[in-house]
Amino acid sequence: MSGAAPPLSPEEAAIVEQRWRSGAGGLRDRRLQGAGCVAAFVGMAALTLTPALAGWMTVDPALAYAILGLAVLMLVGGAAMGLIGAGRAGAGDRAAIEAAVAALLEANARPGSPVDEAATLLLHLREATPGAAPPDLPARLAPVAGELQRVERYLIERRRLPPRSS
User: Fold this and answer.
1) Which end of the chain is flanked by fewer CB atoms within 10 Å, N or C?
2) Is 143 exposed, middle or buried (0-12, 13-18, 19+ CB in 10 A)?
3) Are 87 and 113 spatial neighbours (Cβ–Cβ below 8 Å)?
């Protein structure tokens, strides 16, 4: 059964490449999570190092308290941003996957090849947080499994996706 689907035509390959390039930067909520983690780390480092540096050099007490206050704000605020970003990313991933599945199934009902929608769905599945895909997804995608396999094979050959492990 493997290898039954024909490879992508040059036009379809161009559509998939364009979709992959345009969608590769769509990690908006994870950016919030990453920025929060970095801010928390910088706050923690400043909180840890300020007293040690004050022992080696003369620092005005007002400046030291300002630095420590800013460090505490960065630590607490960064942790909050990281947690909020993590929660929002999972919810956004599920909604994006559901929308991509609906678009793919709708495009499959029309004449022509839905490679653009298949590439969009594969991009969302690759970028999604673990567990974001609904459990009934394989059954819902059964009518478009051939199209998904064609696009996935193309993306694996171009090293955009890792090969399946089993």
Assistant:
1) C
2) exposed
3) no
Q: What are the tokens at 48?
A: 């840890």
Query: What is the pTM assigned to this prediction?
Result: 0.58
| 100 close to 124: Cβ distance less than 8 angstroms | yes
CA pair distance 119, 51, nearest whole angstrom? 53
CA atoms of 26 and 34, how far apart (whole Å): 14
Question: What residue spans define the domains of the chain?
Answer: 11-157
For residue 96, give the nearest of 126, 117, 69, 121 by alpha carbon: 121
Please check whether residue 9 is in contact with residue 150, taking contact to mean a CB–CB distance below 8 angstroms.
Answer: no
Q: What is the pLDDT along the chain (166 residues), one digit of tens a residue?
A: 445 677 888 888 888 888 877 765 554 555 677 788 889 999 999 888 887 877 788 878 888 889 889 999 999 998 888 887 666 556 667 778 888 888 888 888 888 778 888 888 888 887 776 777 888 888 998 898 888 888 888 888 887 777 776 5
Task: Report the distance separating Cα 77 and Cα 32, nearest Å.
Answer: 11
